[in-house]
Amino acid sequence: MSKHLTHTKELNKDEILQIFTYAKNFFDEKKRDDLKGKLIINIFFENSTRTRSSFEIAAKRLGADVVNLDIARSSTSKGETLYDTAANLDAMGPDAIVVRHNRSGVPKILSNYVKCSIINAGDGAHQHPTQGLLDLFTLMQKWGSLEGKTISIVGDIRNSRVANSDIELFTRFGANVILVGPPQFLPKTNLKTTYNIKEAIEISDAVISLRTQTERHQNATFASLEDYAQNFKITKDLIKDKKIFVMHPGPVHRNIDIDDEVLADERCLVLEQVKNGVAVRMGILKFLLN
């Protein structure tokens, strides 16, 4: 039975910590042969330079063979169904398929039709488990533990798969999570929510800014991104000299999500997240395929 990662809940705490132990060992960036002879197929129905290259580098550093499928030009655009695609990919005998899709639930559905591991690289506004894991890992590297920490997530939370994965993992590891955004961006939730970013930052140990997901909005929710930024951009003025970490899953809308000055600040962990992302994805591949 293959092990899949379509949702953060598929991993228990011990499994997550095991993946993190692997990840720490991969910081030396040396090439290894843990997955020599394994085949990994990246199939992205939605654009993503960052996540796709991160998975590709992770797989290659472990010695696996990687095939990237460009879906925009593939047979699904010629009317082939998702199930046909899954069956055809499975017939090639991969050890894992990394899937990103703009519809929620697609990786989970595919996992029922293939013999190999399915890894969700983001599905609609549902889940982005590997991003959630690398965010958790990044904070645990800084703090050792999330117990008693307060983390604010700012922005278009209702449309954010990253927020869903982060919330599930952070709360499970003992953090308090505050959701910050305009009313139309906030989901129905039992978590503390606020429209006042200043208030949230005052009591937070870390803040995660999200990209405004304009492509997922049915109709314009703000007159402009600048209007949104006036109330929800992370600025030096907001964080002052506070002991706080600033994160973002990327790509960052500069001076909309976070201003230039904060991006250059040593408390900003955006590039560290990218670096950790490769190590954590290596850990995930080793965990699922070894």
TrEMBL record:
<feature type="domain" description="Aspartate/ornithine carbamoyltransferase carbamoyl-P binding">
    <location>
        <begin position="3"/>
        <end position="140"/>
    </location>
</feature>
<feature type="binding site">
    <location>
        <position position="161"/>
    </location>
    <ligand>
        <name>L-aspartate</name>
    </ligand>
</feature>
<protein>
    <recommendedName>
        <fullName>Aspartate carbamoyltransferase</fullName>
        <ecNumber>2.1.3.2</ecNumber>
    </recommendedName>
</protein>
<dbReference type="Pfam" id="PF00185">
    <property type="entry name" value="OTCace"/>
</dbReference>
<feature type="binding site">
    <location>
        <position position="211"/>
    </location>
    <ligand>
        <name>L-aspartate</name>
    </ligand>
</feature>
<feature type="binding site">
    <location>
        <position position="51"/>
    </location>
    <ligand>
        <name>carbamoyl phosphate</name>
    </ligand>
</feature>
<feature type="binding site">
    <location>
        <position position="50"/>
    </location>
    <ligand>
        <name>carbamoyl phosphate</name>
    </ligand>
</feature>
<dbReference type="Pfam" id="PF02729">
    <property type="entry name" value="OTCace_N"/>
</dbReference>
<dbReference type="InterPro" id="IPR006132">
    <property type="entry name" value="Asp/Orn_carbamoyltranf_P-bd"/>
</dbReference>
<comment type="function">
    <text>Catalyzes the condensation of carbamoyl phosphate and aspartate to form carbamoyl aspartate and inorganic phosphate, the committed step in the de novo pyrimidine nucleotide biosynthesis pathway.</text>
</comment>
<dbReference type="InterPro" id="IPR036901">
    <property type="entry name" value="Asp/Orn_carbamoylTrfase_sf"/>
</dbReference>
<dbReference type="GO" id="GO:0004070">
    <property type="term" value="F:aspartate carbamoyltransferase activity"/>
</dbReference>
<keyword id="KW-0665">Pyrimidine biosynthesis</keyword>
<dbReference type="GO" id="GO:0006520">
    <property type="term" value="P:amino acid metabolic process"/>
</dbReference>
<dbReference type="GO" id="GO:0044205">
    <property type="term" value="P:'de novo' UMP biosynthetic process"/>
</dbReference>
<feature type="binding site">
    <location>
        <position position="128"/>
    </location>
    <ligand>
        <name>carbamoyl phosphate</name>
    </ligand>
</feature>
<feature type="binding site">
    <location>
        <position position="78"/>
    </location>
    <ligand>
        <name>L-aspartate</name>
    </ligand>
</feature>
<comment type="pathway">
    <text>Pyrimidine metabolism; UMP biosynthesis via de novo pathway; (S)-dihydroorotate from bicarbonate: step 2/3.</text>
</comment>
<dbReference type="InterPro" id="IPR006131">
    <property type="entry name" value="Asp_carbamoyltransf_Asp/Orn-bd"/>
</dbReference>
<comment type="similarity">
    <text>Belongs to the aspartate/ornithine carbamoyltransferase superfamily. ATCase family.</text>
</comment>
<feature type="domain" description="Aspartate/ornithine carbamoyltransferase Asp/Orn-binding">
    <location>
        <begin position="147"/>
        <end position="287"/>
    </location>
</feature>
<keyword id="KW-0808">Transferase</keyword>
<dbReference type="GO" id="GO:0006207">
    <property type="term" value="P:'de novo' pyrimidine nucleobase biosynthetic process"/>
</dbReference>
<dbReference type="GO" id="GO:0005829">
    <property type="term" value="C:cytosol"/>
</dbReference>
<feature type="binding site">
    <location>
        <position position="251"/>
    </location>
    <ligand>
        <name>carbamoyl phosphate</name>
    </ligand>
</feature>
<feature type="binding site">
    <location>
        <position position="250"/>
    </location>
    <ligand>
        <name>carbamoyl phosphate</name>
    </ligand>
</feature>
<feature type="binding site">
    <location>
        <position position="131"/>
    </location>
    <ligand>
        <name>carbamoyl phosphate</name>
    </ligand>
</feature>
<feature type="binding site">
    <location>
        <position position="100"/>
    </location>
    <ligand>
        <name>carbamoyl phosphate</name>
    </ligand>
</feature>
<dbReference type="GO" id="GO:0016597">
    <property type="term" value="F:amino acid binding"/>
</dbReference>
<dbReference type="InterPro" id="IPR002082">
    <property type="entry name" value="Asp_carbamoyltransf"/>
</dbReference>
<dbReference type="InterPro" id="IPR006130">
    <property type="entry name" value="Asp/Orn_carbamoylTrfase"/>
</dbReference>
<comment type="subunit">
    <text>Heterododecamer (2C3:3R2) of six catalytic PyrB chains organized as two trimers (C3), and six regulatory PyrI chains organized as three dimers (R2).</text>
</comment>
